[in-house]
Amino acid sequence: MRLTPAILAAVLAAAGLAVAAQQDDQTTPLPSFRAGVDVVSLNVTVTDAENRFVTDLDQENFQIFEDGILQEITFFNRSRLPIALSLLMDTSASMDKRMRTAQEAAIGFSNSLGRDDLAEIIDFDSRVEILQDFTNDLDRLGDAIRQTSAGGSTSLYNALYVALKGLSKAPLRPSEVRRQAIVVLSDGEDTSSLITFDEVLELAKRSETAIYTIGLQEDDDERSGFREADFVLRQLAYETGGHAFFPDDVNDLPAIYRQISDELSSQYSVGYISGNPLRNGQWRRTIVRVDRERTTTRTKQGYYAPTGA
């Protein structure tokens, strides 16, 4: 499905789909968590001092703070949950010499999906194209990745918008819970999106999606100076509980994709009912701590309170 700027503009103008309209949206809890109350769900990554994933913690090892106030944990799971994944690939002209290596690394990543996982493939240059809708068929995912070819400019924000909207509609069986993630590879700044960074960041913060970003450095990049593209990728990952990577060499991609796959398989799902009864739509900051020394926790930075009665 090729989304040209004109088509995307029409989509954005359609009722209920403009990013600006998201100001009135409510945070959407995972379906099976909702039973007359609003449960805040967090996917938490815990690593030790050597950056290894810590996977043997129990519920009593965790503390969750909302706006500085300790909350009571009501849901805990350290088993691997199925994943709904959007894999985004930058196919702008600057990727030309690195496309083959990037394709093979992405195919290796897609082959690591579990039998209950779903993934879609999206490429973006001047336009955004959904090459493969959500599926568990690894051959179809691989074929879609091989279709990518380099050319055009970079519409990163448009692609993220499409992915975030698509994940909100990913096919689910009744009572099914899935973690949602976006993994995006890009090698430069956005140059052609209709969506702004602030708009897509706001949409990401309102989602239940962790964004993992890979900022592939160009051969002549000066790493010592400020690079807007790096800031964008870091911020998207930080706010959503994902991780940002900045490899110097395209040959580092397989190892990065493996690390992302391992992280998605090593996360904890933790939920609580907020002690704040106000349904005012305000941003609430979340912090997760564990009682094991020399560990680091990572999760989304907060959520928007529900609104209405």
Tally of distinct domains: 2
Number of strands: 15
The number of helical runs is 7
Q: What portion of residues is helical?
A: 10-25%
Q: What's the CATH C level of the largest domain?
A: Alpha Beta
Distance between the termini: 39 Å
The name of the CATH superfamily of the largest domain reads von Willebrand factor, type A domain
Structural class: alpha/beta
Specify the CATH architecture of the largest domain: 3-Layer(aba) Sandwich
Spatially, the strands of the biggest sheet line up as 1-8-7-6-9-10-11
Task: Using the alpha-carbon principal axes, give the shape.
Answer: globular
Low-confidence stretches: 9-36
| Major sheet summary line | 7 strands, mixed
- Strand composition percent: 25-35%
Spell out the helices and strands N to C: EHEEEEEHEEHHEHEHEHEEEE
State mean pLDDT (0 to 100 scale).
87
From the 3D structure, determine the CATH topology of the largest domain.
Answer: Rossmann fold
Computed over alpha carbons, the radius of gyration is: 19 Å
Notable characteristics:
309 residues, alpha/beta, Rossmann fold, 2 domains, seven-stranded mixed β-sheet, 7 helices, 15 strands
Write up what this structure looks like.
The chain is built from 7 helices and 15 strands. By secondary structure, it is α/β, with parallel strands linked by helices. The protein starts with a strand and ends in a 5-residue tail after the last strand. It has 2 domains: 2-22 and 81-264, Rossmann fold (3-Layer(aba) Sandwich), CATH 3.40.50; 35-79 and 268-304. It has helices spanning 5-13, 99-110, 138-146, 156-167, 197-205, 228-240, 253-264, and strands at residues 2-3, 39-48, 62-66, 69-71, 73-77, 83-90, 118-124, 128-135, 179-186, 209-215, 244-245, 268-273, 283-290, 295-298, 302-304.
